[in-house]
Design a protein that fits this description.
It is a single chain. The chain is of the alpha+beta class and about 450 residues long. It has a domain of about 120 residues: Neutral Protease Domain 2 (Neutral Protease, domain 2, Orthogonal Bundle), CATH 1.10.390.10. It is about 25% helix and about 30% strand. The chain contains nine helices and 23 strands. An eight-stranded mixed sheet has the order 5-4-8-2-1-12-15-14, with no helix packed on it. The chain has a five-stranded antiparallel sheet with strand order 9-10-11-16-13, with no helix packed on it. The protein is globular, with a radius of gyration of 22 Å. The N terminus is likely disordered.
Length: about 450
Amino acid sequence: MPNKPPALPPRAELGSNREYLPTSGNAGYVVTHYALELDYRVSNNRLAGIATITATATGDLVRFSMDFAGLTSNRVSVNGVAAKKAVETLQKLTITPAHAIAAGSVFTVVIRYGGAPAPVKSLWGEVGWEELEDGVIVASQPCGAMTFYPCNDQPGNKATYSFQISAESTHHVLANGRLTSRVPRASRTTWTYVTDEPVASYLVSIQIGRYREVALSRDPVPQFALIPATLTSNALRDFADQPRMLALFERCFGPYPFTQYTVIVTDDELEIPLEAHGFSAFGRNHIDGQGGSERLIAHELAHSWFGNSLTLASWRDIWLHEGFACYAEWLWSEESGGPTADASVKQHWRRLNALPQDLVLGDPGPELMFDDRVYKRGAIFLHVLRRELGDQAFFALLHSWVAENRFGSVTTAQFVTAAEFYSPAPLTTLFDTWVFQARLPKLPTD
């Protein structure tokens, strides 16, 4: 095997949501930076915002739209000039600038807006900005970002962010990126966060609540927890092994992609944990002090590599997130003295084999994109690929895959090409039967 793999294929072109989320995403431009100034009142759920959006036109624009729902725009300008028209319809803000924008031009849009943010209904339930008993959680996946800022909501349009968020001083505010300042003024505090890496809009999140910040570890990167006071002792026990998980995943996948990692535990119950760029959120129901959610802690942490750094270009490739994160659960289980990865594969293969055979892993369709079979079949396939390549080549593949596509957008086709570099034989049939055919293949025999 060569000492250094060749460069992987160019990063994916901007993915379209059209087949999976036909109303999300917008043509004609690519956003490169969002600067969000948000003033939020926890007491009555009122949000006032200014979004300054820098974008590049991919074609000549006489008008363009942004995803935007539940709030009202008050003033819109493009390149410093008031827009000729700004119309809100069907979860879109359609803007007609005073002057046409030429293809290739960089332009800036400033939108002042406000209202009472609320989640939007989707095929997968309500998503977006949600009031908690005493705070806020934002679950943007897959189409909820528009509930608190205007955006081009498609996963392939990754952009950098800055957040300036003001809220009651009694509450802690968490957003994506590095905290660069925290300025109290009377009864309110302004928190400023900046991302150094491009972020997909569905991974943008804000968490507000009465939390105590606790340092979990400084090795191999700083890890923190935001926890309600009443849950502190149980949470610290439940997250005690997270530094070991992170160390394992660095050995398996390569260096942790970001400068720090935070977990947050809401004082409300959540149906499932939430991954976001740089942090993960859990509900109080996930904390028992006995490690009852250990696999979920591993799963959300693994999304730092597969989802947050390497992000799918379009939703059809969601197994590239969930299959890898699920397989990370099984790697941790084996590392920590639980069932081996091989035992987990056999157990879940038997269960999947008894279920309907109507899911195509590489294109599950919108109704099934969050089906548990995507998670488990994706993980099983990775183990099958590992056995096909051997451990040395398989983990070399994962390291190369993560490093070469760091902070980029990826597709299944790219992963096929990357994997074949490490295989002495073509992998077309293996990928076809496991990823692109509905019927679950049999596991290879020893």
